[in-house]
Amino acid sequence: MKVIIVGAGPAGMMAGIKAAENGNEVLILEKNNVLGKKLNITGKGRCNISFVGDMEYFLSNVVTNPKFMMSSINNLDNYSLVDYVNSLGVKTKEERGNRVFLASDDASELTEALKKKLKSLNVKIQYSSVVKKINVEEGKVTGVTLEDGNIVKSDKVIIAVGGKSYPLTGSTGDGYTLAKEVGHTITDIRPALVPFRLKETDICTSLKGVSLRNVALKVNVDSKEVDNRFGEMVFTDKGISGPIVLSSSSKINKIEDLDKQAKENKVKVYIDLKPALDKDELYKRITRDFEKYSNKEFKNSLGDLTISSLVPIIVKASKIEETKKVNGITKEEKERLVNTFKNLEFTFSSLESVAVGIVTSGGVNVKEINPKTMESKLVEGLYFAGEVIDVDAYTGGFNLQIAFSTGYLAGISGNN
Fold first, then answer.
1. Cα–Cα distance between 238 and 52 in angstroms, integer?
2. At 156, phi and psi to the nearest 5?
3. End-to-end CA distance of the chain
4. 90 and 149 share one domain
């Protein structure tokens, strides 16, 4: 059987390996001049390849269409993926947050190992090749047409071109066009795992690069809580980012009128700087600190409670005069300070664009794909793998696991 794979990211490379191992003649068509361009920058170049946990843990971290992933993850689960990567000579390590990284902290090591494996299996790779059309006759795939007009015939085509995130790596939404032209539905494309933009740009600029650990993030839309997370975050010049913000973006991006609500200033972001203390406990803690610094000005009394860069922000938000002596601060003012620490308020402006998203939310409708094979229900011999499918997950190695698992299943399915 002749198999064409469109795209040489993690899903495409895994699909190519498995298809070749099953005795097929495999050709990978890659629009870039190198393999794994996006894989090389995942995890900030360190490659958070997978996770530690069971099926339930995995599915709870898949934001969109988790049930669709059950067959894929059963065919190649996280432990099997790590074992396979190790078998290629690439060592891995576990880090906090149940994350699995490459021991070398170098994603290109995995790309090179996969490239070597493909070569050993005689998989042909054709670089700088843009597929313009999936050729179909009588409901069955016959091959593809390239941008230069050349037609390449095949019995099976796997679309594994990624989504629309990081377009400089080649993910420009080509797969959606190819799928749509043969009858598939594309769900709304939204940014996922992206930073928040906030309207308090002056504060964000002053705090750019400030990282906060062990804080809680809450998002309210029209006074109703829509998300709540605990962990790490960081300020950017335009807003906030970091693990809990990125994961929250993949939750709130599905709110249909998010942009409208944001324009009306109805989307609020609250940071709890002291989530380990309830309000009563924090009030007692502040009272003790104020007794300690009773003769100091208010602005100079918060050093034991928070980092120095946050002090001016907290002082302003509490509406307590910064030069007021601590021993003159009233109970009502202390209560306001407690509320400031527990609910430091910002106004949400927007999510960053899909171009800077770690992954894309949306894609080929999963109702039109057989989850047990990754084959199209509309076109015989057409398969999908990776980010082009309408499946996405939180940070933590889950999205790369999705890519490898769906690529694996697409590669082994439908073979002679």
1. 33
2. -150, 140
3. 7
4. yes
> At 134, which CATH number?
3.50.50.60
| 327 and 300 share one domain | yes
Strand partners, 137: 140
Q: Give residue-wise pLDDT tens across range 88-116.
A: 999 999 999 899 999 999 999 999 999 99
Nearest residue to 30 via CA among 141, 123, 116: 123
- Cα distance between residue 167 and residue 355, in whole Å: 6
Give phi and psi for 44, each to the nearest 5.
55, 35
CB 384 within 8 A of CB 376: yes
Tokens linked to 150: 């050349």
The chain-wide mean pLDDT, for the chain, equals 95
CATH code of the domain in which 290 resides:
1.10.8.50
pLDDT tens, residue by residue, 33-80: 999 988 998 888 999 999 999 999 999 999 999 999 999 999 999 999
Q: What is the 3-state secondary structure (H, E, C) of 242-282?
A: CHHHHHHHHHHCCCCCHHHHHHCCCEEEEEECCCCCCHHHH
Q: Are residues 171 and 26 in the same domain?
A: yes
Torsions phi, psi for 283 (to 5 deg) = -60, -45
Per-residue confidence (pLDDT) for residue 41, from 0 to 100: 86
Phi, psi (rounded to 5 degrees) for 328: -105, 5
Retrieve residue 346's tokens.
Answer: 């910002």
Is pTM beyond 0.85? Reply is yes
Residues 100 and 170 in one domain: yes
Residues 6+ apart with CB under 8 A from 297: 322, 323, 324, 325, 326
Which range of residues forms the domain containing residue 238?
Answer: 195-352
How many structural domains comprise the chain? Answer: 2
User: Are 235 and 302 in the same domain?
Assistant: yes
SS3 177: helix
DSSP string, 281-346: HHHHHHHHHHHHTTTSBGGGS-TTTS-GGGHHHHHHHHT--TTSBGGG--HHHHHHHHHHHH-EEE
Average pLDDT for 291-320: 96
DSSP-H helix ranges across 131-253:
174-181, 201-207, 243-252
Q: 392: Cβ–Cβ under 8 A, 6 or more apart, which residues? A: 62, 63, 64, 192, 193, 250, 359, 360, 361, 399, 402
98 to 54, 87, 241, 404, 405: CA distances (angstroms): 11, 21, 20, 18, 18
